[in-house]
Specification:
It contains 4 helices and 6 strands, in the order E-H-E-E-H-E-H-E-H-E. By secondary structure, it is α/β, with parallel strands linked by helices. It has a 4-stranded mixed beta sheet, with helices on one face. The longest helix is centred in the middle third of the chain and has 18 residues. It is globular, with a radius of gyration of 15 Å.
């Protein structure tokens, strides 16, 4: 967030919004706006960078999100980074043909146990 002129966090879960605020406090960051409406349903804004994580857990959501991300990229030249722990809905989605792996992380053991055997998480660069 260093150097960003504008930041918007988005999660439809208000508890996630509270977690974002707490994370800002813990990391001594100035709070920034948090939108708890589905951003996919709103008029698309111009963003230089969209960072999202673990959003391809549902096929319908994945399809809508894929279209939204393509619109961001082609309309505003938005860079898109996607983090995903290798869920089958993501691994089998058509977006895979438009991704380039940046880095892969091993998940800590407690996270592996909580997530049904998922062992890594990968950051992808979306390039349609």
């Amino acid at each position: 967030m260093s150097g960003a002129s504008r930041i918007l966090a988005n999660d439809i879960d208000p508890i996630a919004g509270m977690a974002i605020r707490l994370n800002c406090e813990l990391n001594q960051l100035n709070p920034f706006p948090i939108l708890t409406k589905n951003i996919l349903d709103l008029e698309q804004d111009k963003w230089d960078l969209v960072v999202l994580g673990d959003m391809f857990y549902d096929e319908d959501l994945a399809d809508s999100l894929h279209q939204w991300l393509k619109n961001c990229f082609w309309t505003h030249r938005t860079r898109v980074l996607i983090g995903d722990p290798g869920r089958p809905q993501f691994s089998g989605h058509s977006i895979q043909h438009q991704l380039h792996k940046l880095i892969e992380y091993s998940l800590p053991e407690p996270t592996r146990r909580e997530n049904n055997g998922l062992t890594t998480s990968t950051v992808w660069d979306f390039q349609p």
